[in-house]
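Possible regression after last week's pipeline update?

I re-ran a chain I had predicted before the update to compare outputs. Posting the input and the new output here so someone can diff against the archived version. Not blocking, just want to make sure nothing changed silently.
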Amino acid sequence: MRLFTALYFLLMIVTLPARADAPEDLGPAVGTNIAALIKAPDQNGKPRAFADLVGEKGAVVVFFRSAKWCPYCQLQLIDLNLHAETMASDMGYNIVGVSYDTEDNLATFTKKWQVNYPLLSDEGSRIINEMGILNDEFRPGHYAYGVPHPLIAITDKSGNIRAKLHEKAYRDRPQIEAIFEAIKGLN
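New output (post-update):
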């Protein structure tokens, strides 16, 4: 309980000004294949590609701002961790997180919260740029330069986007129930 109380106060204190909302239709269109884009080292420094990350039926690719400093992302990643095994074993979808964070920052977060799914380090924001989800509110030199607008892309086994989930404001994230419903709607 103390953990959630501390996170709540962190949310109230540590936030960026909410200036730029996400576009209405964020990222590539449904039907676009993103398998070739999803290629980066994970939190352990291991090079990863979509083919070794995807589950039996597909992947839930979560683009988030930062596991180091974004409390909304941290809560989302922790919540996803609670459901990762169910999503993989019962639904056939593996969760994969993607951020501009360094491998070390992702490793620290993973260890602290015992995250059981891969977090990819997109340093330089190559994937984020190619997905068209770069938050251009921040300029080079700003610590948040390179962050994406948060997006969840649900793909099939081949990497075709079958559904996208996002909220207009970065402080809001699709709830786990919405992810489950989107997956159920695909089957």
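Follow-up from reviewer: compared with the archived run. The longest helix spans residues 71-91. Marking as no regression found.
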